[in-house]
């Protein structure tokens, strides 16, 4: 029998059923799109010749369809070869052969990211089922807050009890907050009836309550403790008792990188400098890594696998800066300090070295980020076990969700418009399919979204057909494209075990993102590109409001959001509702010609019924504010008045 060390830790399987479904859909949908554009081109030539139909609205519809088809084509790269991986943790080598790992946790503002949630993440990382002497947890505080530093010290005190408790009883849930809020029978099923476990659990629960109280008391001045500019600071959290065994606990370090007003700062990049669709992309040399919940080898971060062994130290310093200790750490042969050495860590010389690394100017005049580090790229794999490895906090109200997605959309557009745009930068370095996936820019949905929310409706009111008659064969073509897209979307949702309601909510959120997030991100990216605007990182508020959380659990939308986010959506909804009602008489006269256009407002009205509910029927505090509704009515009236201008050309 083969040794467990020679067997693979994971095996990749092609999802053949999904692959066949995906490729069949790609083939049929692509043929339909080709036929659609044939119809559009021939019809456009007739319009140009006869001028019986306004040209401008027809051109805008064609442009929107081209944008949609282009985005769809890019997305199909991730559908071409979906794979999944089976992992075998039982094949891991003995503890003494496991490599050391570092866990990075990022926070920025204790007023928007409550310390209790951040510290639960830190404690969860410290409680990983991994040898303590090979585990290091770093908390990167972008705000340099004394509230966060106090909280991490309190977290260490509680972790001194929690980590041994987790390991003694082999707990499956190792986040304290999740553990104590879970059903006892599911959390402690192995030790039900054990008196020793019950006594230890009671002690731990009491200590956790004290830990919560200490953090809540210290968080009173959370907003005042946040600092925009501050000096670097690195603190290793240790016991006051020097006699304790350092091998019992992982290393915990609090890191603050220097921030100055005259130096550009990249959020999360200071202390990490590594954070830069998934099953399908796993089959294309690996998915992208963004945000959190991923593991990277040092070689992937530093690009050291291409460094020659006999390279001169001067060249290394040109790439990685002047720190000798940092250069030593980039090689596989580097060994972290042993737990026994941590008692005297950090020495004054090493502390000075760390302060140098954490300064704003360390990587000035180096090749870091240009010819060194993740510039060279990596190959990654995607693992999605039945039981999630990580669970994070998500916005529970519409405002924070849309703000978060606006920030994400802006980041994607900034890359698209930069010199590292995947349209030009990755084509020579990646396969065609991988380049297509990275070139997918969902923000461009804003163009067809506003076009299809306004143009067909205006033409419906004036009896101008934009689509083939119901009695014509080409009508079946357009109907197929519409139905095919939504059926494939539902199939993807159902394949993950989610419900029709999840598919509907996903469609709603997609429309809301297109109407607000993508609009503002697109506008902000253009202004930044021409030098009229400077973008700033907008932190998502993670403070939980009980009333908002209750609505979220009940599946009720909370419309306590900025008017800038709600007015575009509500205005379009009112406009579509009005045009559909006014256009009904036209359907009795020209139903064969105008029925396809009536589908657009009807579909939007049905899918986004929650907007009508928030504006008209709801009376709770989470409804759409009356002032927003009135402003939306006024804007929709302006669209009505300006509509005829589109028909002049």
UniProtKB/TrEMBL annotation:
Biological process per Gene Ontology, one example term: cell wall organization
Cell location: Endomembrane system
Protein name (Swiss-Prot/TrEMBL): Cellulose synthase-like protein G3
Single Gene Ontology MF annotation: cellulose synthase (UDP-forming) activity
Organism: Sesamum latifolium
Gene3D superfamilies noted in UniProt: Spore Coat Polysaccharide Biosynthesis Protein SpsA, Chain A
Residues annotated to bind UDP-alpha-D-glucose: 112-113, 142
Transmembrane segments: 20-39, 55-75, 437-464, 470-487, 564-588, 594-612, 624-647
Highest rank taxon of the organism: Eukaryota
Main location: membrane
A GO cellular component entry from the record: membrane
Organism lineage string: Eukaryota, Viridiplantae, Streptophyta, Embryophyta, Tracheophyta
Record membrane topology: Multi-pass membrane protein
Keyword list, A-Z: Cell wall biogenesis/degradation, Glycosyltransferase, Membrane, Transferase, Transmembrane, Transmembrane helix
């Amino acid at each position: 029998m083969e040794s467990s060390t020679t067997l693979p830790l994971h095996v990749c399987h092609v999802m053949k059923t999904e692959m066949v479904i995906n490729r069949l859909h790609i083939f049929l949908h692509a043929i339909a799109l080709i036929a659609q554009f044939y119809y559009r081109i021939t019809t456009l030539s007739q319009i140009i010749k006869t001028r019986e139909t306004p040209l401008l609205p027809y051109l805008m519809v064609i442009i929107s369809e081209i944008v949609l088809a282009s985005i769809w084509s890019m997305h199909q790269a991730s559908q071409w070869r979906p794979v999944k991986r089976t992992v075998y943790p039982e094949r891991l080598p003995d503890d003494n052969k496991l490599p050391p790992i570092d866990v990075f946790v990022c926070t920025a503002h204790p007023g928007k990211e409550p310390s209790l949630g951040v510290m639960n993440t830190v404690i969860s990382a410290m409680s990983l089922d991994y040898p303590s002497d090979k585990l290091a947890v770093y908390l990167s505080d972008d705000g340099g807050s004394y509230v966060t530093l106090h909280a991490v010290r309190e977290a260490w005190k509680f972790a001194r009890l929690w980590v041994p408790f987790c390991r003694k009883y082999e707990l499956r849930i190792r986040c304290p907050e999740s553990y104590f809020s879970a059903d006892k029978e599911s959390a402690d099923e192995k030790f039900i009836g054990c008196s020793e476990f019950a006594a230890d659990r009671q002690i731990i629960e009491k200590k956790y309550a004290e830990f919560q109280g200490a953090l809540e008391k210290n968080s009173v001045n959370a907003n005042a403790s946040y600092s925009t500019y501050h000096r670097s600071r690195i603190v290793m959290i240790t016991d006051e008792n020097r006699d304790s065994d350092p091998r019992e606990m992982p290393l915990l370090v609090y890191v603050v990188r220097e921030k100055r007003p005259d130096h550009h700062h990249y959020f999360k990049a200071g202390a990490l400098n590594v954070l830069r669709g998934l099953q399908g992309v796993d089959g294309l040399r690996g998915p992208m890594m963004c945000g959190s919940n991923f593991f990277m080898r040092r070689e992937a971060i530093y690009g050291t696998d291409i460094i020659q062994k006999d390279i001169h130290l001067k060249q290394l310093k040109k790439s990685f800066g002047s720190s000798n200790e940092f250069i030593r750490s980039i090689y596989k042969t580097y060994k972290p300090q042993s737990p026994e050495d941590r008692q005297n860590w950090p020495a004054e010389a090493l502390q000075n070295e760390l302060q140098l690394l954490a300064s704003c100017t360390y990587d000035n005049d180096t090749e870091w980020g240009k010819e060194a580090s993740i510039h060279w790229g990596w190959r990654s794999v995607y693992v999605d076990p039945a039981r999630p490895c990580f669970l994070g906090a998500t916005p529970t109200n519409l405002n924070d969700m849309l703000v978060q997605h606006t920030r994400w959309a802006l980041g994607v557009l900034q890359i698209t418009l930069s010199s590292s745009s995947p349209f030009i930068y990755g084509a020579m370095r990646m396969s065609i399919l991988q380049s297509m996936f990275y070139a997918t820019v969902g923000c461009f949905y804003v163009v067809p979204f506003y076009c299809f929310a306004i143009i067909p409706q205006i033409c419906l009111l004036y009896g101008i057909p934009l689509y083939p008659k119901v009695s014509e064969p080409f009508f079946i073509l357009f109907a197929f494209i519409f139905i095919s897209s939504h059926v494939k979307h539902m199939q993807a949702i159902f394949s993950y075990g989610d419900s029709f309601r999840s598919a509907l909510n996903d469609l709603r959120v997609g429309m809301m993102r297109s109407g607000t997030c993508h609009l503002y991100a697109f506008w902000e990216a253009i202004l930044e590109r021409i030098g009229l605007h400077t973008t700033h990182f907008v932190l998502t508020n993670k403070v939980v409001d009980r009333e908002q959380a209750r609505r979220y659990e009940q599946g009720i939308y909370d419309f306590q959001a900025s008017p800038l986010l709600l007015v575009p959506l509500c205005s379009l909804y009112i406009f579509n509702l009005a045009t559909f009602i006014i256009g009904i008489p036209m359907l009795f006269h020209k139903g064969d010609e105008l029925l396809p256009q009536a589908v657009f407002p009807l579909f939007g009205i049905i899918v986004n019924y929650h907007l009508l509910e928030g504006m008209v029927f709801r009376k709770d505090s989470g409804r759409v504010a009356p002032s927003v509704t009135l402003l939306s009515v006024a804007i929709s009236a302006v669209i009505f008045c300006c509509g005829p201008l589109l028909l002049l050309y």
